[in-house]
Amino acid sequence: MDSWRGLPAAQQPPWPDEGALREAVAWLSVAPPLVTAEETDRLTSLLGRAARGEAFVLQGGDCAERFDHVTPERVAGRLGTLARMAEVLEAAAGVPVVRVGRIAGQFAKPRSAPAETRDGVSLPSYRGDIVNGAEFTGAARTPDPWRMVRAHRASAATLELVRASGVPVHTSHEALLLEYEGALTRRRAGGWYDTSAHLLWIGERTRDPGGAHVEFAARIANPVAVKLGPAATAREVLELADRLNPWRVPGRLSFIARMGADRVREALPPLVRAVAASGVPVVWLCDPMHGNTETAPSGHKTRPVARVLAEVAGFFEVHRAAGTRPGGLHLEMTGDDVTECVGGAVSERDLPLRYESACDPRLNREQSLEVAAYGAGLLRG
Ligand SMILES: O=C[C@H](O)[C@H](O)COP(=O)(O)O
Ligand SMILES: C=C(OP(=O)(O)O)C(=O)O
Ligand SMILES: [Mn+2]
């Protein structure tokens, strides 16, 4: 299970204290599992239905969860919004909607740049609460391996709130920090399960078929997903499909296309066609967020809801033209009334009012419901 060690692993934090890293990993390797193999297998079979067109997937939640946002109100807000969106989509799809949260573990962030400079001062970039603090001070930005232990506790507390809500949701996050994911991986009858979440995905920046992340994902029994940006080639995608779903199990592998509204119509068709021709069963999800990020004049990262809708439309068009299935949506969203994406009641001027994301801009409740209603319209055809 340690076969990923020794392979190139992108986006790992430069932990300054080796001893502390070893101690934190030792703590995690005997920590209680967060999810069971049975629940995890159930998600694989639900996703298998989506691969056959008998279900639609809604995956959503924060870009970056925060340790100090684990409150009943915030979790209920996110889950309530996700549940409402799922109802809207379900009514249109005529098949069950599989609810998957970016929740209870979505704490690690890959970054475009290793450092951030403000007023001539450079500090390590914020890499998510599991690595360092968002505050712009040397102390906060120093990677601290004990934060992985806090992330496990915050995930457990969030999961308790999720389980108490009644919203039937499975958990997911990006499998970015391999020390964390590896330490929570346990042997079960069905193989090795990463017990940190039901579904793990590999990000656009770490999907090198020869890299450590793909090797780790290939070894676990969980359902896995891979983000695909506009530079992904059919050859790479076929290699990923082969590595990650060699036994061709429906539901084992999802591809999350995040092309950008302008690129989706030209970048996605060759990938969809190549996968269809290979016969490897895959669920195709649309992430209309990460290819549509812009910087507003105020300096805030934002996403125009109109571009989000345009990418969703393009994704459906591509699948209709190829005769393949649009399997679901992957969104960065919250139940809170934030001002992070532009659209509806939020204009560029409003961005500073309630911009609470520590990383990427999320759809607020109203915008999330707008995207769900739009998706429902496309599902009705
Ligand atoms: O959530 C995704 C990435 O972590 C994020 O888009 C990277 O953002 P950056 O370009 O500000 O580093
Ligand atoms: C890091 C993310 O996305 P991507 O890997 O697609 O950039 C994300 O989903 O937050
Ligand atoms: Mn993001």
What do you see in this structure?
The structure is a single chain. By secondary structure, this protein is an alpha/beta fold. It has one domain (18-380): Alpha-Beta Barrel (TIM Barrel). It is built from eleven helices and 14 strands. The strands form four sheets. Strands 1-2-5-8-9-10-11-14 form an eight-stranded parallel β-barrel, surrounded by six helices. α7 (212-219) links the parallel β8 and β9. α10 (305-322) packs parallel to α11 (365-380). The longest helix is centred in the N-terminal third of the chain and has 22 residues, at 72-93. The N and C termini lie far apart (45 Å). The relative contact order is 0.16. The model has no long low-confidence stretch (mean pLDDT 98). The chain binds erythose-4-phosphate (E4P), phosphoenolpyruvate (PEP) and manganese (II) ion. Residues 63, 109-112, 290, 359-360 line the site of erythose-4-phosphate.
Brief descriptors of the model:
381 residues; alpha/beta; TIM Barrel; eight-stranded parallel beta barrel; two-stranded antiparallel ribbon; 11 helices; 14 strands; globular; binds erythose-4-phosphate; binds phosphoenolpyruvate; binds manganese (II) ion; amino-acid biosynthesis; cobalt; Aldolase_TIM
